[in-house]
Design goal:
mainly alpha; 3% strand; single chain; 3 domains; 266 residues; two-stranded antiparallel ribbon
């Protein structure tokens, strides 16, 4: 197997046997700071690592036959031992060269079990916004969409899948137009969410203002009447001997009470 060959772009073409070309390609590769891969129990990390590598290969215009050779320089610890156990010998390499796509498949089988893949696929199929804000929902949508790419393999399918999982209130606020680009519907949904939050904030402020009064004259009549009744009741007393309530606001009652007390005293 060729560890490092010539790149596919300008300045890196030529014979794969040329050591200068190999060193130049390796320098370009590490200058972009690719992450080491030690193995992971998190399938999202594996997929993220592979996608970053694909971007680096595209940036340095790496040829297909050089990708595997560059990637193996990132294997450390457990993955390095794994690579030693699966890498083809020279005879196998000549008959059936190991491609970058095949290597990614092998890594997925080893570090990304099928039952975990299935769980992620189901999570994406059932994904709904729920209590998440739009930004959180969008990030989760992007993370899980990679596990069921056939549902988002066109721009329109991606738009439809995203819209179906949105909160019902946000969907009501969307215009009747048909969105054909994911970025367009995402930006519009962000705008709708902002408007809904502003409306909720204004309503909350209005309710708060209506529930408080700066003076007694602003209070509803029924509440003011109840408070006055309580005030009057607090000035009155219940007398056991006559089974009546008397208060200082009624002079006649006061005289009658005093007379009754005097008679009882006699």
């Amino acid at each position: 197997m060729t560890v490092i060959g010539g790149g596919g772009g300008s300045g890196d073409g030529g014979s794969k046997a040329d050591p200068i070309i190999g060193i130049n390609l390796l320098n370009k590769f590490f200058k972009l700071q690719p992450s080491k891969f030690r193995g992971t129990a998190n399938p999202s990390e594996l997929d993220e690592s592979m996608r970053k590598l694909d971007k680096i290969f595209e940036t340095i215009m790496c040829s297909e036959e050089s990708k595997v050779g560059l990637a193996m320089h990132l294997f450390t610890e457990e993955v390095d031992h794994w690579w030693d156990s699966i890498k083809p010998i020279d005879e196998e390499e000549k008959a059936n060269p190991l491609t970058w796509e095949k290597l990614k498949e092998n890594m997925s089988e080893s570090y990304y079990p099928r039952d975990v893949q299935r769980a992620k696929e189901l999570e994406f199929s059932n994904l709904e916004q729920g209590k998440m804000i739009v930004m959180e929902y969008g990030a989760k949508f992007a993370e899980l969409s990679q596990f069921k790419r056939h549902l988002v393999d066109t721009e329109q399918r991606k738009v439809n899948q995203f819209e179906d999982g949105l909160d019902i209130e946000i969907r009501k606020g969307l215009p009747s137009q048909v969105f054909t680009k994911y970025q367009d519907i995402y930006q519009r949904v962000m705008r709708v969410e902002k408007i809904l939050n502003e409306i909720k904030a204004k309503n909350a402020t209005s309710i708060k203002k209506s529930s408080g009064w700066s003076s007694a004259s602003e209070k509803p009549n029924n509440i003011a009447k109840e408070e006055r009744t309580l005030e009057l009741a607090s000035d009155k007393k219940y007398y056991e001997f006559c089974k009546k309530i008397h208060g200082e606001d009624n002079p006649t009652e006061q005289r009658e009470s005093a007379s009754t007390v005097e008679n009882l005293a006699i």
